[in-house]
Amino acid sequence: xxxxxxxxxxxxxxxxxxxxxxxxxxxxxxxxxxxxxxxxxxxxxxxxxxxxxxxxxxxxxxxxxxxxxxxxxxxxxxxxxxxxxxxxxxxxxxxxxxxxxxxxxxxxxxxxxxxxxxxxxxxxxxxxxxxxxxxxxxxxxxxxxxxxxxxxxxxxxxxxxxxxxxxxxxxxxxxxxxxxxxxxxxxxxxxxxxxxxxxxxxxxxxxxxxxxxxxxxxxxxxxxxxxxxxxxxxxxxxxxxxxxxxxxxxxxxxxxxxxxxxxxxxxxxxxxxxxxxxxx
Length: 280
Ligand code: NDP
Known about the structure:
Blueprint: H1 5-22, E1 28-34, H2 38-54, E2 57-63, H3 69-81, E3 87-90, H4 100-106, H5 118-125, H6 135-146, E4 155-159, H7 166-174, E5 183-187, H8 194-198, E6 203-206, E7 224-227, E8 231-233, E9 236-238, H9 243-246, E10 252-253, H10 260-278
This protein binds NADPH dihydro-nicotinamide-adenine-dinucleotide phosphate (NDP).
Residues 136, 159-162, 164-166, 188-190, 194, 207-210, 228-231, 260-261, 264 line the site of NADPH dihydro-nicotinamide-adenine-dinucleotide phosphate.
């Protein structure tokens, strides 16, 4: 059965819109976009549109490709001290003259809409419930919740160990919490015999950025498959899972597009709302 991320995200955003209106909040999110990377421009456009739909005010600060690290740090400093701004999102990747880690560190942890600041990462890893969780991992947890997919005592294999998807997701799923309590294996490019390992998974999460990488040999019959991948082949978007041959073997699977992607955007809105509401 397909997990309809588009529908779950839409319902989530509808509830959020009502909460924001009822509470009389004007959450404000500042996007900082450096350079002219077309995918980054389109992500920021999509996220800005989603903000407007739920009543979040967004500001877009566009800077040239030649922006120096110091100039960007100064922009962040200004946003940090602007009390009308609740969330800051610096769209990655940044031009090579700018150290991304330095930029993430400069964002006020209380305005960190992506949840990438090391202080927030540390809080998340230690199970602090009052923390901003990175959007894609949080979106995956919400999808599992929406479909009542049990994670407790299940074996989850996460393919990909990036700081924005695989690693935080593996950590959250292993915590003592709702959508947690799983036994998690975090696999990567140096893991041996991936098909045999993945075949042991009750829930398989693919976040490696390799089009159609996961084939039927990776799947235990009846498994849940979450495909985080977004890969462009010509003008088509495909996931990391070969949906055509894998879907018939699964109990649940996320399609690409229309699975995890819409949830990532919905969770950015949720994070901005949380920052505006409580100043985490
Ligand atoms: P990264 O490139 O940062 O990380 C990829 C990870 O996959 C690395 O840990 C890498 O291992 C591992 N990997 C790569 N090739 C293989 C292989 N052949 N076998 C096993 N492991 C492998 O990617 P991201 O985490 O940023 O993104 C992953 C995918 O998710 C991409 O397609 C991206 O576009 C998508 N994405 C989707 C989002 C959404 O909203 N749906 C949001 C964010 C990302 P190693 O560490 O050893 O190099």
